[in-house]
Amino acid sequence: MTVTRSSSTKSYAAEVEERFLAKLRREKRHSVLRRIVLNIAGVAAFLALWELAPRALPGTNVQMFPSPSLVLKSAWPMIISGELLENVAVSLARALAGFVIAAVIAIVLGVVMARFQTLCQLSEPILHGFRSIPVIALVPLAVLWFGIGETSKVALIVCGAFFPIWINTFIGVRDVHPIYLRSAACLGAPRLKTMLFVVLPAALPMILAGLRQAIAVSLIVLVAAELSGATVGVAHMMSLGYQLFKVDVMFIGLFVLGGLGFLADRLFVSLTARLFPWYLTSK
Amino acid sequence: MSRLVELQNVSQLYAASDGKPNWALREVSLQMNEGEFVCIIGPSGCGKTTLLHLIAGFIQPTDGEILFKGTPIQNPSPRRGVVFQEYALFAWMTAHQNVEFGLRMRGVPRPERRERARRFLQKVGLELVSDRYPHELSGGMRQRVAVARALINEPEMLLMDEPFAAVDAMTRATLQEELLRIWQEIQLGVFFITHNVDEAIFLSQRIIVMSAHPGTIQDEIRVDLPYPRSRISREFGELYTRIGQELHR
What we know:
The structure holds two protein chains of two kinds. Chain A is mostly helical. Chain A has helices at 10-56, 68-81, 83-115, 117-131, 139-146, 150-174, 178-186, 191-227, 234-243, 247-275, 277-281. The radius of gyration of chain A is 26 Å and the shape is flat. Chain B is 35% helix and 27% strand. Chain B has helices spanning 48-56, 95-105, 110-123, 139-151, 169-186, 197-203, 234-247, and strands spanning 3-15, 21-33, 37-41, 63-68, 71-72, 80-83, 157-161, 189-194, 206-211, 216-222.
């Protein structure tokens, strides 16, 4: 048998590499495009079905079950006048403020409790007790204490978003693999730096899971808080629609809330991939 | 040559799941000199890793004393670098960031840190993959990074816990040769745990054979063969047979 060496000239290798990379780029573009197209097609099919269903089923009350085109028709003037945008902006600001405050408190407390046993054992009965109270049950109390202003809404969102972040951070930090801590110790890392550079990143997957859950909880509590009394906001708009028997307005709210939740989650995932490149790809 | 590590009648107990005390190590005495390469070999459960954790300072002995250059070991220290079996690299740091970790912890300024990390990555032949994350490296490369990460602190000894157990045979042979080269170049003490007789004879100046239940030192064997050692020499074969017999006694 003879082995013939391929002509390993530079131009040949460069050409193969270029072809390979071009193919890779093409495939990646294709898969991104495919996903977008299918996502949109799914939404379109859902809306089309919804649009057609009331027409196909005789006796459907379009007042009670408005079709997407009807919802859009009543939404259009609200979009033009900026009314819808204002409601969305106010609601988003509330949810974001509550979420951020909750995240800061919960992560700090979660880390501290997982590292200091005394503190943990002192506070765990209280915290776990509070954790089992549904936040919705606090809505009337919050209105009594803080009125129907921003404070009560943000406070409620903080309460709701706090627990998933806190418990996940706590477990993540508590269960950091000892080999990481030992590595840090024998490389001369002091306590605080070990915390910052080793414990927090090692617990990050759990912390991120808690944050993602808290995004969803924030939106739920937001709606409950706004329904209980507000002068502006997406859920307030829906509650007005209810009082004026404008079901189409209530549906606008549903669309907005669904869209917001979806976008917030997507944003979170892409931010995670960008900030922590080692995390998603190493799984 | 002066004494690097000294263990005097060290015992380590732990509570088994039924609550009864169990001897991981029983009255172990051991000396190691500066710049010496010592291999610990023995069946699983003989307390090899416990011994390493004691010298590293991760745990304190139940009884007895452990001295490092004459002073008792109380804490882990960058003067005693540790290379674990695997999965000890920080997954969220690139190879370069892993290597410079020790310097960063001591507040060495960034330009100096970069330069020194680059030099140590070069020493283990990894300058080209310094920006990769651990999950993008092969098992052999990961262990090279782990060695560089420990060496950058300029430790007086390296504690290695079956560092090459998880890599394939060919890579393992290369890593052994590289380790010997680095050891001869830097002249630091190496405390190397293995369950591989061949590896122990190829690497070390002295082999400590341990037995289990309770963990004790069974025998100490000097290996006076010159480096680099040939695995097919007669002396190598004789040592291999002897240690094999001791382990199966």
